[in-house]
């Protein structure tokens, strides 16, 4: 017995010693990982700020740049700062580093304010300095140099233009003092010709804009030249390394205390075992019950009702404010649900998904579930939230179900109203026919699968007519499904199924191959639609490159159309794809241009050949002056940039004639031809 006890004690001591060693090894690995992570994030801040400086520099030189690049770079740096400020390792062990982070953050905020001041002034200064040479050129063409008054006007305009350019480049405020007098002198000119008078008015207006914004422009540049962020970042790095040396010596010394810490190590193991079990049933971020906890509770629950709650547009909050702020929103929603629903019929709270919450209550016949839900919806959005110092509203969509399985039925009900922004609440019942909706999707999937398997997916071709000649010069290939009864269906109504079932690569392969086969005997150019999924798919790109390689003559007639919303990203795959197909003589078109956030600069950066103006604009140019103005702006840009334009959805003679008069190159729509098989 005594021998057995000794053996047992020896085994226990050996196990404890081994566990202590393993724990120390894990601890040291974790420490070095945190150390490396902080170093990496500090380096990322430095790189991000340099990239921000580059974007600011670019915006100061290039005319047609918006603030998207600058905003993105600022957001990147702010995100890393937030990570460091909330880094528990730094909070526990690096107080001076945290203080330096806050000091750097303050310096960065001042820099950001200076950048925005510069952007505001720079935009006005650039527009004014760009407009003056154009107006001067128009004046040279319009005014009579032999007429004394007009010649004097041209001389004065030239002098003012020189002063403006010199002042902008030298930041000499004394030159600005001369502008008021020269503006007054220039204002003495009056011309009977309305066009000449318009030029005079425009010149004076732009000079005044330049004069008014010049002090702010100069001041913002001087601020940007005297920023403290570089110094603050250097102090941050130095503080971290100084504190880290002390911490590193502690870690090294820690190895001598392995035996003394073996009991603590065992305690930690037991603690983490218990904690891991609790974490399975508890959501770490909100403290609510997890999906697994819900599944355990529902098994033995009495007749119950489940309130399934979804945060509206939560992804937008995550994208705009960052993941850390998104987590804060989830915590706020948790607190608000507790506050508003604590008095319900013994509620149990769960986080059932990324932005989905559940409240499970006992269901009684005299309990008015809809009244509860409406009260929750009303009270929930009355109190605003503060995110990153910005007050914003928060709304939810709510589904209720009392029919088993509760989570599945409430989830189907919730999904049925997510696209209908006028509805906030739905109570599941059999009359919703949600199962029918699921069955319809299954039917579409079956039809799509059969059409592909039986070679009943074919291209139809819609003509693209030249406004100049009135003749068909191009076609666009559009996918069509041939049903078993011979009915021809557009692929449009199957798009949701295609995305969910991952059919895109297959459809693209079929459309490319069949379109090439049809056009092999035709003399026309033809266009093929590609999604961003196609362009980022290695297999699809290789297939396209192979067919272009095998058909060099046809390749020169191919136009690849990319959706504006998908192409207008700084996406290396898109750029690489465009460069590849252009080597074979292909053209690139931007489809649906004008439907979203249209950025002219990207058209130049991506080397686009053709701009297809979105049908939502074209079909209203005969009735909507704003739509017509937007189209005219796009056409004017396209002509200056040497791009071809195509009007989509040309549906009537009136639209056709206006599009032609605006100067669009080609027409596409049912007025000039429907999609048909060739």
Q: What is the CATH T-level topology of the largest domain?
A: TIM Barrel
**Average pLDDT across residues?**
82
How many strands, which pairing sense, and closed or not: the largest β-sheet?
8 strands, mixed, barrel
- The main sheet orders its strands as 8-9-11-12-13-14-15-16
Tell me the radius of gyration: 34 Å
CATH architecture of the largest domain: Alpha-Beta Barrel
Topology of this protein?
Elements: H1 2-61, H2 68-85, H3 88-93, H4 95-142, H5 148-170, H6 173-187, H7 194-225, H8 229-254, H9 262-281, H10 291-299, E1 304-311, H11 314-321, H12 323-341, E2 348-351, E3 356-362, H13 369-380, E4 385-387, E5 390-392, E6 396-401, H14 406-417, E7 425-427, H15 434-453, E8 457-466, E9 472-482, E10 488-490, H16 495-501, H17 504-519, E11 525-530, H18 532-535, H19 538-550, H20 552-555, E12 558-563, H21 564-567, H22 572-582, E13 587-593, H23 600-605, E14 610-613, H24 615-618, H25 625-641, E15 644-647, H26 653-662, E16 666-667
Parallel strand pairs: 6-7, 9-11, 11-12, 12-13, 13-14, 14-15, 15-16
Antiparallel strand pairs: 1-3, 1-6, 2-3, 4-5, 8-9, 8-16, 9-10
Q: How does this model look, in words?
A:
This protein is of the alpha/beta class and 678 residues long. It has four domains: 2-118 and 227-252, Four Helix Bundle (Hemerythrin (Met), subunit A); 123-225; 286-432, 2-Layer Sandwich (Alpha-Beta Plaits); 440-667, EAL domain (TIM Barrel), CATH 3.20.20.450. It is 63% helix and 13% strand. It has an eight-stranded mixed barrel with strand order 8-9-11-12-13-14-15-16, surrounded by five helices. Helix 23 links the parallel strand 13 (587-593) and strand 14 (610-613). Helix 1 packs across helix 9 (262-281) and helix 4 packs antiparallel against helix 8. It is globular and about 105 Å long. Residues 1-7 have low confidence and may be disordered.
């Amino acid at each position: 017995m005594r021998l057995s006890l000794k053996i047992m004690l020896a085994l226990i001591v050996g196990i404890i010693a081994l566990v202590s060693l393993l724990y120390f090894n894990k601890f040291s690995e974790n420490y070095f990982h945190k150390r490396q992570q902080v170093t990496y994030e500090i380096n990322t801040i430095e790189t991000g700020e340099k990239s921000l400086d580059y974007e600011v520099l670019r915006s100061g030189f290039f005319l047609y740049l918006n603030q998207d690049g600058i905003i993105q770079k600022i957001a990147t740096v702010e995100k890393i700062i937030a990570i460091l400020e909330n880094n528990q390792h730094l909070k526990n062990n690096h107080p001076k580093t945290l203080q330096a982070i806050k000091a750097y953050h303050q310096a960065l905020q001042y820099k950001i304010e200076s950048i925005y001041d510069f952007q505001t002034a720079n935009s006005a200064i650039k527009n004014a300095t760009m407009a003056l040479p154009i107006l001067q050129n128009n004046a040279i063409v319009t005014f009579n140099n032999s007429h004394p008054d007009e010649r004097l006007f041209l001389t004065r305009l030239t002098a003012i233009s020189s002063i403006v350019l010199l002042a902008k480049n030298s930041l000499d405020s004394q030159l600005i003092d001369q502008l008021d007098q020269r503006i007054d002198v220039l204002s003495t000119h009056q011309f009977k010709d309305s066009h000449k008078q318009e030029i005079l008015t425009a010149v004076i207006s732009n000079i005044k804009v330049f004069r008014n914004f010049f002090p702010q422009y100069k001041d913002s540049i001087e601020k940007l030249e005297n920023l403290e962020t570089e110094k603050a970042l250097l102090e941050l790095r130095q503080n971290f390394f100084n504190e880290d040396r002390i911490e590193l010596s502690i870690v090294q010394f820690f190895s001598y205390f392995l035996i003394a810490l073996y009991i603590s190590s065992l305690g930690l193991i037991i603690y983490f075992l218990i904690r891991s079990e609790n974490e399975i049933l508890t959501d770490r971020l909100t403290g609510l019950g997890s999906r697994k906890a819900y599944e355990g509770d529902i098994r033995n629950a009495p007749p119950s009702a489940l309130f399934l709650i979804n945060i509206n547009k939560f992804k937008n909050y995550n994208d705009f404010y960052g993941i850390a702020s998104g987590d804060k929103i989830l915590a706020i929603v948790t607190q608000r649900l507790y506050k508003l629903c604590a008095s319900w019929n013994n509620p149990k709270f769960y986080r059932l998904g990324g932005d989905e919450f559940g409240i499970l209550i006992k269901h009684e016949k005299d309990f008015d579930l809809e009244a509860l839900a409406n009260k929750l919806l009303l009270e929930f959005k009355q109190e605003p939230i503060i995110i990153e110092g910005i007050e914003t509203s928060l709304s939810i969509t709510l589904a209720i179900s009392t029919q088993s399985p509760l989570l599945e039925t409430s989830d189907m009900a919730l999904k049925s109203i997510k696209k209908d922004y006028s509805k906030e609440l739905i109570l599941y019942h059999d009359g919703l026919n949600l199962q029918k909706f699921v069955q319809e999707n299954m039917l579409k999937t079956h039809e799509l699968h059969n059409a592909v398997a039986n070679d009943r997916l074919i291209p139809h071709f819609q003509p693209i007519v030249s406004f100049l000649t009135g003749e068909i010069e191009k076609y666009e290939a559009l996918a069509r499904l041939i049903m078993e009864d011979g009915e021809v269906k557009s692929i449009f109504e199957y798009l949701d199924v295609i995305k969910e079932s991952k059919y895109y690569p297959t459809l693209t392969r079929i459309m490319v191959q069949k379109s090439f086969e049809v056009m092999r005997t035709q003399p026309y150019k033809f266009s093929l639609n590609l999604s961003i999924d196609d362009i980022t798919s290695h297999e699809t790109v290789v297939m396209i490159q192979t067919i272009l390689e095998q058909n060099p003559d046809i390749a020169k007639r191919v136009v690849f159309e990319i959706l504006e919303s998908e192409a207008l990203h700084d996406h290396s795959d898109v750029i690489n794809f465009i460069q590849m197909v252009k080597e074979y003589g292909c053209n690139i078109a931007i489809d649906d241009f004008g439907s979203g956030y249209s950025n002219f600069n990207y058209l130049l950066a991506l080397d686009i050949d053709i701009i297809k103006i979105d049908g939502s604009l074209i079909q209203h140019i005969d009735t909507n002056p704003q739509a017509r103005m937007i189209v005219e702006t796009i056409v004017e840009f396209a002509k200056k940039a040497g791009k071809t334009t195509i009007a989509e959805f040309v549906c009537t003679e009136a639209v056709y004639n206006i599009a032609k008069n605006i100067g669009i190159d080609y027409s596409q729509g049912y007025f000039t031809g429907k999609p048909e098989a060739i």
